[in-house]
Amino acid sequence: HEATAIFRNNVVAHNRAMGRSDAGGVYNEFFSSPTIENNWIVGNEGDDDGGGIYTMREGDPLIRHNLIAGNWTTMGGVGGVRVSKEGRAQIIGNHIVRNLSGGGLYLVDGYMIAKGNVIADNQKGLGIRIQQHYEYFQPAQISDNRILNNEEGAIKVMESVGPPPTMENNHIVEGRPSSSSQSFAIKKTTYDQSLG
Predict the structure, then answer these.
(1) Mean pLDDT of 16-36
(2) How does strand 155-157 pair with strand 81-84?
(3) What pLDDT digit, counting tens, does each position of 143-163 carry?
(4) Distance CA 38, CA 82 (A)
(5) Does the pTM exceed 0.85?
(6) Strand ranges for 85-132 from DSSP E
């Protein structure tokens, strides 16, 4: 509880969270606010969600400059990073690439800043997926990312309540921002039609 650890310069590889558990790689919750930085988080498996990293229940990590790749979940949840159940995260300058299930980054009932990441080539899901069931969450901030060639598209806001996420200065290839229930606040986001 309430830990502020620094987790830096590690290789987290080929781990498995079994028994319908989350986060094969790194798991964070209960008011802890670690710095997770300059790691390779690769080839991990969670049975349920967040094959690479999962933060929930008031966890608030800084996730910066990591390679998060080749992770998956047995039940089809997001392979890269999941933020949910009132978790928060700053996700900055990472390569979230080629995760094998559920896409790259999934926010549900939490808050995140996603800035300066490469989110590319993730399989069986979107680059970024967002869903909020409660109005009290601040809108996610998604800026300066390169969101490229994810199997089911770039970004989607599922049926949600509360204010929509803000998106600024993202470069999207193969898959436009889409929403089933609300519009984004989009500024200076590009879409490369020649590649998509």
Answers:
(1) 89
(2) unpaired
(3) 999 999 999 999 999 888 888
(4) 18
(5) yes
(6) 88-92, 95-97, 105-108, 111-115, 118-120, 128-131
Placement of tokens 């470069």 in the chain: 171
Q: Which residue has the tokens 């809108």?
A: 139
Whether the CA torsion 104, 109, 110, 112 is positive or negative: it is positive
The residue-averaged pLDDT of 67-92 equals 96
For 127, residues 6+ apart whose C-beta sits below 8 A from its C-beta are 103, 104, 105, 119, 120, 147, 148, 150, 153, 154, 155, 175
Highest mean pLDDT among 90-94, 131-135, 190-194: 90-94
Q: How confident is the model at residue 20 (pLDDT cuts 50, 70, 90)?
A: confident
Determine the Cα–Cα distance for residues 161 and 108; give it in Å rounded to an integer.
11
Please, how many CA atoms are within 13 Å of residue 139, restricted to the half-sphere of its CB?
Answer: 17
**List of residues 6+ apart from 193 with CB closer than 8 A:** none
Tokens 């080629």, residue located: 98
Q: What does the block give as tokens for 154? A: 């770039």
User: Under a CB-based contact definition with an 8 Å cutoff, are residues 123 and 99 in contact?
Assistant: yes
> Residue 81 has which token pair?
């990073």
